[in-house]
Design a protein that fits this description.
Helix content: 40-55%
Strand content: 15-25%
Strand order of the largest sheet: 2-1-3-4-5-11
Radius of gyration: 25 Å
Number of helices: 13
Largest sheet: 6 strands, parallel
Distance between the termini: 82 Å
């Protein structure tokens, strides 16, 4: 019954016109999260068409949909790229994104810290949450499930349950491409200065590195493989140790761009020039790679796209949709800039 017909529309009329049950129409009216996007859009369209006014006499304004975006680290360029992708997708979908940090577990009342966090989010009207590059416990994941909160993890350090939905990149292929590029330039003593040993993305990059060496008939030297972290200081420490070896590497593949800049500084302190004396490859392709001197050869992760996919996947889960896969990997690609050179050129300078 379109607006202007002179007769008050009822919610039952709206439900009938939208082809849904009365309880489903009520869920949409009250902003419940357990309705698919398509159904929600159809019911909201009929509500507007009919000019539906609740019995209180006030025209219905559907409440804002809200999701949480939780970081372990908010100061990195990596995090800023993910943040931009999530918020862009949220704006397109009409969803508000609340930014937060992983809470410190504190026992409060009868609930466990994990259940307390989940219940607090649920009571605040959150449809779900996206967690970025953090280590989640099984208790936290189960707490979200008990509260009925949808969960998507971006680049997880671990996956406490196989069925946890995650979004990442082709880290193995990226490690293979980075190392293959250095091999094509004639390097054979290639080091890996990786992230935390327990991080699944770091392990995948390491396996890609090893596969490239094996494909080229090169034995992996355990002295050339270090695990640290994804910070500048981690790269500085690992670069210092690698370049102090009796037989140092001629090239280093760093776990991310920030660590690569730390390696760059370690080389500078030893009087080495990149790429004249040492070739260097990073991972991520954040603005740091373009701003560094020399500009950094790196493996590009589509970070903003990863954020967009995570937000859209979360909304699908919150709407009760069944996903084709619990894990999505977006393609990486090598971006060659000025920090790598053929080993023959290094030896000639």
């Amino acid at each position: 019954m379109p607006a202007g017909s002179g007769k008050r529309a009822t919610l039952a009329m709206v439900a009938d016109a939208a082809g849904v049950s009365l309880p489903t129409a009520s869920k949409v009216l009250n902003g419940r999260g357990d309705v698919s996007d398509a159904t929600r859009a159809r019911v909201e369209g009929v509500l507007r068409e009919f000019g539906y006014v609740p019995q209180t006499g006030r025209r219905t304004v559907p409440p804002a949909r809200v999701v949480d975006l939780v970081f372990d680290d908010l100061h990195s360029t990596y995090s800023l790229e993910i943040l931009r992708g999530v918020t862009d997708a949220g704006a397109e979908a009409g969803v508000d994104v609340v930014i937060g940090r992983l809470p410190v577990p504190v026992q409060s009342g009868p609930l466990t810290p994990e259940d307390s966090w989940a219940q607090r989010l649920k009571s605040s009207g959150r449809e779900g949450l996206i967690v970025v590059t953090s280590e989640l416990s099984l208790a936290q994941v189960e707490g979200f499930a008990r509260a009925g909160l949808s969960l998507v993890v971006i680049d997880p350090l671990n996956l406490p349950r196989v069925e946890v939905t995650s979004v990442g990149a082709t880290n193995w292929s990226g490690g293979l491409a980075a190392t293959g590029h250095l091999l094509s330039l004639g390097h054979r003593r290639i080091a890996y200065a990786g992230g935390p040993a327990q991080a699944s993305c770091s392990q995948a990059r390491l396996h890609g590195y090893r596969a490239a060496l094996e494909n080229a008939g090169c034995a992996a030297d355990p002295d050339l493989v270090l695990h640290g972290g994804f910070e500048y200081s981690d790269g500085l420490d690992m670069g210092t140790r690698l370049l102090a070896l009796d037989e140092p590497p001629t090239a280093i593949f760093a776990g991310n761009d920030a660590a690569a800049l730390g390696v760059l500084e370690a080389a500078r302190r030893r009087g080495l020039r990149v790429p004249d004396d040492l070739s260097l490859v990073g991972f991520d392709d954040t603005v740091l790679a373009e701003w560094s001197t020399p500009a950094l050869t790196t493996v590009r992760q589509p970070l903003q796209d990863m954020g967009r996919v995570a937000l859209r996947t979360l909304l699908r889960l919150a709407g009760g949709e069944t996903l084709d896969s619990h894990h999505v990997e977006l393609a990486t690609n090598l971006v060659v800039r000025d920090s790598t050179a053929p080993i023959s050129e290094q030896g000639a300078r």
